[in-house]
Structure formats: C-alpha cells, structure tokens
Amino acid sequence: MHTVFLGLSTNLGDKLQNLNSALTKLSEFAEIIDLSSIYLTEPVGFKDQDDFLNAVVKIQTKVSHTDLLERIKLIEKEMGRVKIIKDGPRTIDLDILYYQDLFFDSKNLTIPHPRLHLRNFVLTPLNEIAKEHIHPLLKLSSQQMLQNLENPDKVEFYATFN
To answer: Which of 21, 45, 85, 131 sits most deeply, having the most CB atoms within 10 A of its CB?
Structure first.
C-alpha cells in the first residue's frame, strides 16, 4: 500500500457536495486515512471568480502514481471539470501532493507537487493532518513550510467533513 496526500479544491456549484463526491469516488480505489478540515480561500492567479473550498486527504492505495493521476483526472472529468482559463473556476481539482516519499518528474506529473510549499491553501490543511511530514526534496516539515510562507493568501476555517 502507498500513502498519498491529495489536495482537493472546488469553487463551482455545490462546493461541499463536490468535495464529498470526490471523496466517495476516491474511496472506490483508496482507503481514506485522514481528512483535514475544509477551508475557504481566495482565488490565486485568476482573481475574477468565486472563492474556493480546499481540503487535504490522506489515502492509502495499491494504485501506482501514474495510474492514480489517470484516475483522478477521470474523476475530475466525470464531475464536469473543464479547463478554459489557467487557475480558473472548477467543479473539482484533485492534486497529488505527495506519493510516499517519491520524487517523480514527467511532462504530465511532478511529485511532490511543485508549488505545494508556496500555497497557504494547501499547507494549512496539510499542516492540520501532517504537520511533521517532511518534503522529500526541501527537507522541511509541513509546519516549517507554512511558517516560511511570505505574504500568505487568506485561508479561513469553513467546516469539517461529516
């Protein structure tokens, strides 16, 4: 079994339902080990859109990292995600943050996620469930990366998963 951290993000439609639907679909091939709270965050990059709900989930799966990418892209497609604008609105966005302590870099996938250490909307929920987890390249814990953020974007507690 492989331990994986995924970022979940949504800002279209019924946002809470989107997060719960994504978790249900993930549970078809992974065991959910831990869930962060849900956080309300302002858009990063393209600003002219609704605020996001973000969370992080820790899973265990037998699926390889490349197969996992295919499966989460399929979930995004099934849930109606269409990429029109970079960093634009989305029904669901699923990002592989960590896959074990793997370092992997290809055209379609980079693990660890290449910008996780720069994003408060990822680090805040990640820190909640894995504050001591060490980034395999930066050699910093989630807590240290969060503390090192300069000018962090606004992230507010929103809710917990039921």
So the answer is: 21
The distance between the two most distant Cα atoms of the chain, rounded to a whole number of Å, is 41
- In 48-94, where does DSSP find H-type helix? 65-78
Task: Tell me the pTM.
Answer: 0.93
How many CA atoms lie within 13 Å of 83's alpha carbon, on the beta-carbon side?
6
Contact present, 26 and 37 (Cβ < 8 Å): no
**Which residues have a Cβ under 8 Å from the Cβ of 68 and sit 6 or more positions away?**
4, 61, 96, 99
Average pLDDT over residues 124-147: 95
All domains of the chain, ordered by start, with CATH? 2-115 (3.30.70.560)
Supply the residues annotated as catalytic.
81, 90, 93, 95
Q: With contact defined as beta carbons under 8 Å apart, do 59 and 149 qualify?
A: no
Distance between alpha carbon 130 and the CA centroid of its chain, in Å?
A: 13
Q: What 8-state DSSP symbol labels residue 91?
A: S
Tokens matching residue 157:
């507690």
